[in-house]
Design a protein that fits this description.
Layout: E1 22-30, E2 33-41, E3 50-61, H1 68-74, E4 76-77, E5 81-85, H2 89-103, E6 118-121, H3 136-144, E7 162-163, E8 166-167, E9 169-179, E10 182-193, H4 207-211, E11 225-232, H5 238-246, H6 248-254, E12 264-271, E13 276-277, H7 295-315, E14 319-320, E15 326-327, H8 330-337
Parallel strand pairs: 5-6, 11-12
Antiparallel strand pairs: 1-2, 2-5, 3-4, 3-12, 3-13, 7-8, 9-10, 10-11, 14-15
Helix pairs in contact: 2-3, 6-7
Pfam families: Peptidase_S58
Family: Belongs to the peptidase S58 family.
Keywords: Aminopeptidase, Hydrolase, Protease
Length: about 350
Amino acid sequence: MMHIGLLEAGLRGTIADVAGVTVGHCTLAQGAVQTGVTVVRPHAGDVYRGKVPAAACVINGFGKSVGLVQLEELGVIETPIALTNTFGVGTIANAQIRAAIAANPRIGREDPSVNPLVFECNDGYLNDMQALAIDEAHYRSALDACNDDFARGAVGAGRGMSCFELKGGIGSASRIVQINGRGYTTGALVLANFGRLPQLTIAGEAVGRALVSADASKVTPEQGSIIIAIATDAPLDARQLRRLAMRAAAGLARTGSVYGHGSGDIALAFTTAYTVSHDADFITMPPLISDARLDPLFQAAADSVEQAILDALLSAETVAGRDGHRRISLNDALKTRS
């Protein structure tokens, strides 16, 4: 696969290069049901008890996520990050709440409630969302499947997604930077479901224009979405993590997105450098990187997001779904044109 930018990738070339981060999928692929759930675990422990510093950036807010308000206020996440289709958000939020209660029976009684964190994209072109096929067991299955070696493409939440009018889905990438002589890893995972084919740009090359059919005169608005999760092992606070999340927009724009009116583009960034204990009276933090030294991390975030989107396109296979709808993979589209 073409390497984006000048920075070195991690060993796996995925978000799992950030130590402790794992990803799992549950995929539903039968006839008109083409959907699923993807879960990102920031660490192997109980995220409610060991909360993870995080922040989000809403690039364009046409989305139906759960948990963003409290995330913005408190600067931590306390469940794994879940991705699914638009109509599955409530079900997956319930599943996250049940999982947290099972591990912490005091939740909602002696202890505060839990803030589920679910993000979505609309996979309704390929998937019959009205079937409401997602259930709580699918979250548990994806959570149990979390591993540092995970599939990408038309899997999990990415099963029914479209990207630049081609087959989209899950993509991931990583980059390594040096700051003051110390190495840090930043990784991205995307749920890519956005873009118009004529705008598709790969490493600065207008690839999409060559793939547009000669009779494609109808201009359709961009109505997709992308969810971006950025992980880093660099010690940052929530304010700095929001700055890091904002750089996802640079990588997204390089691929040809203009964040259209109907696009829900949301980026979340978290650090694994430390956790915030649920029971602590004081927060113990490592020395944080100075804001003036963040540029390498900003570059790593932009490059890994751009690479992850390309990874989603090249990892996906052609998928047929509801009512005869079909999304051809980028690989198949390139073969057709060659």
